[in-house]
Amino acid sequence: MRAIIPVAGVGTRLRPHTYTLPKVLLNVAGKPILGHILDKLLDEGITSATIIVGYLGELVEEYVRANYSFNVSFVEQPVREGLGHSIYLAKESLGDDPVLIILGDTIFEVDLRPVLDGEHSSLGVRQVEDPRRFGVVEMSDGFISRLIEKPDDPPTNLAIVGLYFIRNPRLLSACLTDLIENDRRTRGEFQLTDALQMMIDRGEKFTTFDVEGWFDCGKPETMLETNRHLLDRRSLSREIEGVVINPPVHIAPTASIHNSIIGPYATIAEGAMVCDAIVTDSIIGASATIEGTMLRESIIGEGAAVRGRFERINTGASSEIELG
Fold it and tell me: pLDDT value at position 287?
């Protein structure tokens, strides 16, 4: 089985961080978002992947090749015309074997084995308060009867959350080709939900599976929320003389910390230096420097430096701020 992972988005809501890093390489609870996704695939026994890249795609490829032994191919999406267009560009991966499509900006916790062993295609779903931001599903007799992309008046609150198991990839390829060649767009883009609806109309049966462990990383506040959740599950700490550590935290082995209070819910990445500081509910990027200040609900980019007084800071990578 092969996974298809679209990661071509620019990540405008996470600027300034995404000026220098693609969104999927931002650190959450000690590793990039994409690292959490790939680790989950390995846990499920999936070792082949097609990754669709765009903005800063060379950094994505460099990270994956340096850290994983996947049988992986990279496809470029130079112009972003929707998720359907993205998967269409990877149509060479849509052969006879089932595929799992995973959106690259979402970390999930769900047992996929029953889904992968099932006889039907299946979409991951979750009940949400505002389904207008999602594709939604309507059910009939245990199967999906209709899919609607970001409806103004949602008929249900059962949202598609970015996990798509496709038993019949050749039919999906044919439906995506139909969309592209006939320029069938919804809200100005080629939508994967439209291709899936075409599959349903042509007889493909789709079930759903619940994804309660679904964590958005699309905005600074949701990144921090996801960081908190993952640290509750997997904390990485160590004793450091002169440092008070309030778990859960993630402190990378090469991080240097002196005379500080760390946590709860602090991620300190590789090579970071924290001195005379208090850091809670924050993510400190690789090789960043934090000195003489207090940070809460903050995200500090790779190589950034924050020195001075107690403030709330949200900086991009390779920046330097001095407060005083």
Answer: 94
